[in-house]
Amino acid sequence: MENLKVRTEDIDDLAKFTRFSFADLLRQISQLRWLIWAITVIALCTVGSVLTAVFLPGSRAVLLGEDGIIETGGAVCLASVVLLAGSAAIVSGPRAAFLLGGLFGLVELMDETSFGARILGFQPPALYGGGELDGVHDLLILAYRLLGDLSPSLGWALIGLILAVSLGSLLFALRVVWNTRIDARWPRLSNHVLIFLHVGLIGVAQVVDVATTSRTFSAVEELLEFNAAVLLLFYVAQQVVETTRRSRSGRSRP
């Protein structure tokens, strides 16, 4: 009987833990609406790009190549991030989310524009092992090559480390999304899911860039970087809207 009682209590606890009413669903959607919007945009752009590349092979270079539509779109998103984060910091005061988002956006924008070389027209320095040092990702390539010269296993260890951090960031974001619906302590973290997803995607993109050389993987890298830029833009926009809402709510109180 005692065992039966324990099992009954366990079942009751499990039922309370996993109960998910329609009201809970609406509340979760409200909390994660920015994530839903970002994923919708990413899905539409990714599916559209893949279908275009498959059925219109002649458009691949224009769409997914160097300085193509996808890369340019990513640069526009990053420039928007920098402007939005900077403006919000001036208007609302410096906040960690604005500074973090703006810093990510600025670094990645400089990477996309080859540290300004594509805009100003100067020649980037040569990169050890071939190529040019025209982006932040080239620093990872440089580290990979130097470590590889010491020992091939060290180079692959660097790749493994970047991949582990990236996948860990993605998995943590998924855990936050899942736990938001069953634990009241997680909604605060749910406001930062997009930045964890951004870190994960941009990390995977760097792994693809450093460890592969094929055109197919190069196109995958461009899509990953574009998707990461979209996530970052939605993250900064979310923080601006939430900060403005809290500020107005505070002023409206007597």
From TrEMBL:
<feature type="transmembrane region" description="Helical">
    <location>
        <begin position="189"/>
        <end position="208"/>
    </location>
</feature>
<keyword id="KW-0812">Transmembrane</keyword>
<feature type="transmembrane region" description="Helical">
    <location>
        <begin position="68"/>
        <end position="91"/>
    </location>
</feature>
<feature type="transmembrane region" description="Helical">
    <location>
        <begin position="34"/>
        <end position="56"/>
    </location>
</feature>
<feature type="transmembrane region" description="Helical">
    <location>
        <begin position="154"/>
        <end position="177"/>
    </location>
</feature>
<feature type="transmembrane region" description="Helical">
    <location>
        <begin position="223"/>
        <end position="241"/>
    </location>
</feature>
<protein>
    <submittedName>
        <fullName>Uncharacterized protein</fullName>
    </submittedName>
</protein>
<keyword id="KW-0614">Plasmid</keyword>
<keyword id="KW-1133">Transmembrane helix</keyword>
<keyword id="KW-0472">Membrane</keyword>
